[in-house]
Amino acid sequence: MGYRCPECKKVFDDFKDLRIHYRKSHMDGRCSICGPDGKKFSNIIRHYHMKTDDFPHLVVLCIIEGYDFIEDKKYRKIVRSLVETVLEERNAMLFEIIFNKGDRGR
């Protein structure tokens, strides 16, 4: 089972490898979820924290930071399960529904 990158769709054997890849390859201060041009933010992590009510933003934040920012342990476990399920390679259709950049209404 692998985990798919929401940016480039590459698949990684484990979540840790996906996190390393995302930080190295896609942390340029732009938020691709907010639009194809990806507004550049001086603090992209803060942007993701402010948008955790939007699931794609929450997923990317969990890729970048892990799950420790979620204080409630039960909620953290639920979020972890949901995020990793969405990113699993075998769930390509669910991934496309959530990260379909063309239908986000920007």
Automatic annotation (TrEMBL):
InterPro entries: Znf_C2H2_sf, Znf_C2H2_type
Transmembrane segments annotated in the record for this chain: none
Coiled coil: none
SMART domains: ZnF_C2H2 (SM00355)
Domain C2H2-type: 3-31
Domain of life: Archaea
Pfam families recorded: zf-C2H2
PROSITE patterns given in the database record: ZINC_FINGER_C2H2_1, ZINC_FINGER_C2H2_2
Official protein name in the record: C2H2-type domain-containing protein
Source organism phylogeny: Archaea, Thermoproteota, Thermoprotei, Sulfolobales, Sulfolobaceae
